[in-house]
Design a protein that fits this description.
Blueprint lengths: L17 H24 L4 H20 L9 H24 L1 H4 L10 H29 L4 H23 L5 H19 L6 H16 L1 H9 L3 E8 L2 E8 L2 E6 L2 E6 L2 H12 L7 E5 L6 H5 L6 E6 L2 H10 L2 H8 L3 E5 L2 H6 L5 E6 L7 H4 L4 H10 E12 L7 H15 L4 E5 L3 E7 L7 H11 L8 H7 L2 H11 L13 H11 L5 H11 L2 H22 L8 H26 L2 H25 L7 H20 L6 H28 L5 H25 L1 H21 L4
Length: 726
């Protein structure tokens, strides 16, 4: 095993540990800010996030696999130019994302399909993570081939970037200004150790572009939104909030999606009154989201009502206070209204008084994070918080007269999930479908509802006797009920977010492209072909390789690939399960990732310290992967409280770091390619993130994923045991 050597005249002029540390820091910081901006431009659900992360890992792996030329410049100057180039491309990539809709010929906030999102994700990964992947091999050459040390320092840099960006920069600065600080700090570090020359130009240019990012953040947003008039924007830990004004109406956007408009009495009325008119004299009403969008105003029209509003992001209330007027603004200060800055699901599941109505004014379940409000587990928590005949109500997209197959699958999944908890479920037809659920009776009789409106003296603009008679025509109500009662509707669960997947199909169907057909076809394929057939092929392939008794060092790449696939899939599963269970993944993701990277560092250090590894060392750590997966499902399901998921990720990080170093030690005996194992790790991680986020978790659930991962790691364990050892 080679040890770290001192810097030579051709290096960056910095401490030998700093260039690999800077590599991990830059890779993670650039990824974090690009992912936030990508989500704001391309309908940030797990499907698009999976595309971005997958392309990022793919190009990083390819970059690591490319062998550096022996006649290339010394590693130090090559790294200096590479880091400076990455910083320049980072600023360019942020600008390209901001004006992506203009480049595609689309209007601001117009929805895009998966194909444009995939194209931009592919481009960004090529521009930034391909050179960073090459940086791993250059760092290894700079340190005399000491790959374990590079891996340890790169992981430590990634952990530091995650904590600094997530806790230090994101809560205080906009995405562009935070990225400017990261770029400027990295450029100054590079400049401090570089000799004058043409490579110095990249770092100087990076400083200039960083200043531009900080100075032109809001101006560039206004230019990107033209011809619409953007009047305010704020980046928060939860997303990008933007306010667009058109004449007298202000529309609030969250990550590029319209959340609510002011004034928009029609949307607020249907979200509130269909539920409150079901009972005489409701007293306590809970609004989960939407209180600032007119929901509180409409609820206060009912005499003697008290309204509790729960908002996750305090910036929503601050912006609403600036741009709301009239009754909607007054409602926020009304003594009958209480505002709680909490996670809505944690609030509903927690202790407190019961409510006569719980109204969800949330986006449709387009992401796994929002989908947790539409699962069977949440509906059960909501029923427990309702009075005996209380009403749960929410609104999701639908269609006036024709329910297409994708829309029917989406709506029937929600309806079937509700029926598993509430004995009475009704659906109001229209452009938006209003779901009502209760243990008590529910009525959609237009005459009875109109009489109740008149009796209570409610001044409503859109829910009048004429519109109710048309909207609640018995034929329309019956048609929708038949569509919702389709056989085989999938139940939406915390760990099996089926409605999120069907919404992805519905979203993709708007663009008449191949993506919708692919998603629908995958949903119809028997689970065995997607979950079990690949495992069978893997078992056959590994059995053949073991039987050949080949002593090629490439056989040590198998456990590295399985480790990369497993750790990435487990990370995604933990994030989804943690959010559904504890409702605070937004603030805890940096800690979860930091603990995982801390485990990687400690595991790699422990493996590097073993100067005389035993023959069964690799088999033991591979077997530990399979064993750790067995209790993982119970832990991320809630056993052990919040500490459980942290312990799981720390354990997988430690095993992953140890396995990488142990495998790489054996691999480098037969090949001089320092980036080979690292590249295979990233490519396997790419496969894991795409399959887990876009297919396995939403369609088959986390339990199915964990079970197959355990089988896969068991197969890898057998392969390592029966393969010839050195």
């Amino acid at each position: 095993m080679r040890v770290m050597r001192h810097a030579d005249p051709g290096d960056l002029g910095l401490k030998p540990w700093l260039p690999p540390f800077l590599l991990g820091f830059l890779a993670t910081a650039c990824q974090a800010y690009l992912l936030r901006e990508f989500g704001a431009e391309f309908y940030g659900n797990e499907l698009t996030f999976g595309l971005f992360l997958g392309c990022w890992l793919l190009w990083g792996g390819i970059g690591s696999l490319v062998r550096p030329r022996r006649a290339a410049v010394p590693a130090g100057p090559g790294l200096a130019g590479l880091y400076g180039l990455v910083l320049v491309l980072f600023a360019v990539a942020l600008a390209v994302l901001r004006f992506s809709h203009r480049l595609l010929g689309l209007l601001p906030a117009e929805l895009t399909g998966l194909v444009p999102a995939l194209g931009f994700a592919f481009l960004l990964g090529l521009l930034l993570n391909f050179p960073l992947g090459r940086g791993f091999t250059l760092n290894a050459r700079l340190l005399g081939g000491d790959v374990p040390t590079v891996y340890i320092l790169e992981s430590a840099g990634a952990a530091a970037a995650g904590l600094i960006v997530s806790f230090g920069l994101v809560p205080r600065l906009s995405n562009w200004r935070g990225a400017a600080i990261v770029s400027a700090a990295a450029a100054l570090v590079i400049l401090s150790g570089m000799k004058p020359g043409r490579r110095r130009v990249f770092a100087v240019l990076a400083l200039v572009l960083a200043a531009g990012l900080a100075a032109f953040d809001l101006r560039s947003q206004k230019a990107a939104w033209a011809p619409l008039r953007l009047v305010d924007s704020q980046d928060t830990p939860y997303g990008k909030l933007q306010v667009v004004r058109n004449e007298e109406q202000a529309t609030f956007f969250d990550n590029g999606q319209a959340v609510f408009s002011h004034p928009d009495p029609g949307a607020a009325e249907e979200a509130v009154h269909f539920a409150l008119l079901q009972r005489q004299g409701p007293r306590a009403v809970l609004l989960v989201g939407g209180g600032a969008g007119g929901g509180a105003t409409e609820a206060l029209k009912h005499a003697g009502v008290r309204v509790d509003c729960v908002e996750l992001d305090p910036a929503v209330i601050r912006l609403a206070g600036k741009y709301l007027t009239g009754p909607d603004r007054a409602a926020l200060d009304d003594p009958r209204v209480r505002i709680f800055i909490r996670d809505g699901r944690a609030f509903v599941a927690g202790p407190g008084d019961r409510y006569d109505a719980i109204l969800l004014n949330l986006p449709e379940p387009a992401t796994a994070q929002v989908n947790r409000y539409y699962t069977r587990e949440f509906f059960a928590e909501a029923r427990a918080r309702l009075s005996p005949d209380g009403v749960l109500g929410f609104v999701v997209p639908s269609a006036e007269n024709y329910i297409s197959a994708p829309l029917g699958e989406f709506l029937s999944s929600i309806a079937a999930t509700l029926r598993g908890v509430f004995p009475n479920v009704r659906a109001v037809p229209g452009e938006h479908c209003v779901f009502l659920a209760s243990a008590g009776p529910l009525s959609l009789d237009p005459a009875a509802l109109s009489a109740s409106i008149e009796r209570r003296g409610l001044d409503l603009r859109t829910l009048n006797p004429g519109s109710l008679a048309a909207r609640l025509d018995p034929a329309r109500v019956e048609y929708l009920a038949r569509k919702l009662a389709g056989p085989g509707a999938r139940i939406n669960r915390d760990l099996v977010p089926a409605s999120y997947y069907f919404h992805s199909i519905l979203w993709a169907s708007q663009f008449r492209g191949v993506e919708s057909r692919i998603l629908r076809a995958a949903a119809k394929v028997a689970p065995g072909w997607i979950l079990d057939a690949p495992l069978a092929l893997c078992a056959i392939g590994l059995a053949v390789l073991a039987a050949l008794r080949r002593r090629s060092p490439a056989r040590f790449l198998v456990p590295v690939a399985v480790m990369g696939f497993t750790t990435m899939a487990v990370e995604l599963a933990v994030f989804v399960a943690f959010q559904a269970r504890f409702g605070s993944v937004y603030g805890k993701v940096p800690l979860l990732l930091a603990l995982f990277m801390a485990g990687v560092v400690l595991g790699a250090v422990a493996a590097r310290a073993r100067r005389r590894p035993g023959g069964f060392e690799l088999a033991a750590v591979q077997g530990a992967f399979a064993l750790l997966l067995l209790p993982t499902l119970r832990i991320i399901g809630g056993t052990g409280g919040q500490a459980g998921p942290f312990a799981v990720l720390f354990g997988f990080g430690g095993l992953g770091g140890y396995l990488f170093v142990a495998s790489n030690r054996r691999l480098l005996v037969g090949t001089p390619h320092a980036g080979l194992a690292y590249g295979i790790d990233l490519l396997a991680s790419f496969t894991g993130v795409v399959l887990a986020s876009a297919l396995i978790i939403p369609l088959y659930g986390i339990p199915a994923l964990i079970l197959r991962l355990a089988v896969l790691n068991g197969l890898s364990f057998l392969y390592v045991v029966f393969s010839p050892r050195r």
